[in-house]
């Protein structure tokens, strides 16, 4: 991922596809949304309280399996736990097992996991995060061959979505929600952007339900680091400007203006939202830690990406915003 993999995307390349993607997500008053259903107004319901303690524990649980690298026992063990967890809460769970090809021709087992809530609902929100870890800490200052825990990069986004899923089971939202946990995101070669996000590329071409569509998607990546701030990533602003602005506005309204920022410090970043936008044609934005200096957090792709960087308030800010949006105004953008 990220600085090298999540590198700046050429504006001209994005411009070729962005217009159609934005049209798919249009939900103005009196218009239809991307599923053909009428827009849902804001809903007056009590919003569950997101438990940052649970999200922290879910992050630690993933780390306890060891680095979740394809072709390792940790991959299978963590996948089994994720599947079992979602089966407790979701109405339906889908598991995609396939083989993808790595940047050097490696055959890599890939396990994508989907938990669906309110599967009959026409209006849907897709929530996604990757659960694998990068095989080496290639940004580490001391030993670039070591493995890393991936507590923030992978673990935190999944943890937030698991806690959201637990709440969806306890208090069913009116909207349809699909939680997609994708594999083999971070195995790529920085010199080849297309060698990353392999699990998402596969899902976008082979969705868990044939013809699957959602009104929009929210990608979580590196959402648990201490001191993290989130700026509006440029590709997200082009593909899903309405949903993204709504999400930032809600985060600010409920007390997280120090974390969800409006300053123009974002960059074009290659992440899992790109294949969802360009292949699946679902307008999707990225919630991703970024620094005003134009860099990823210092623990990115280093051995410092462990539980010591995970901050409960950051997890809370992201998770509570998701619940607020899903329960009260999922399509009010």
Automatic annotation (TrEMBL):
Keywords carried by this UniProt record: Acyltransferase, Carboxypeptidase, Hydrolase, Protease, Signal, Transferase
Molecular function terms from GO: carboxypeptidase activity; glutaminyl-peptide cyclotransferase activity; zinc ion binding
Cited PROSITE patterns: PROKAR_LIPOPROTEIN
Domain Peptidase M28, chain residue ranges per copy: 112-325
Entry annotated with the keyword Acyltransferase: yes
Superkingdom field: Bacteria
Gene3D superfamilies in alphabetical order: Zn peptidases (3.40.630.10)
Cell wall biogenesis/degradation listed as a keyword: no
InterPro entries named among the record's database cross-references: Peptidase_M28, QC/QCL
Signal peptide range: 1-22
Protein name: Zn-dependent amino-or carboxypeptidase, M28 family
Lineage: Bacteria, Pseudomonadati, Bacteroidota, Chitinophagia, Chitinophagales
